[in-house]
Give the backbone structure.
Amino acid sequence: MAAKPSWAGKYGNGSGSFHMVWRTPAGDLRDVTPKALPFQQILFVPDVKHAYTGQQINNVRQSLTDDARVHQFIGLANRVFDITNAGDLATFHGQLPSNVAREVMTLELEKARLFDAIMRSEPSRNDLCRCGSGKKYKRCHRP
Ligand SMILES: [Zn+2]
């Protein structure tokens, strides 16, 4: 089953991604998708327009700040999706061909550099606070 969570805030963008959800024999739903980053909150919104058919579905990413680096980060994440799902790779599950893996590594290093720079800089006054409170920075942790 596919479910699209949406979350906001901590890293300066809102993102919806498709997660693998397991229905237990008792009927409970458990998110079993590995996550690269810890999230304080994930809101799941069932998406009846999408069903998993063996092809990865790109995440929905939206910047909640006017920081150009966040827009660049989102562009790089979409680029990684595009090159890892191009042509026959759309239905391929396994180790990427070395030329694709090299390009992905380059993009991931650039994403990591941007992420680090964004997290080390002070947010704009009207950006959501990175603590995840949902409040604007100026009304939360701004000194
Ligand atoms: Zn805060």
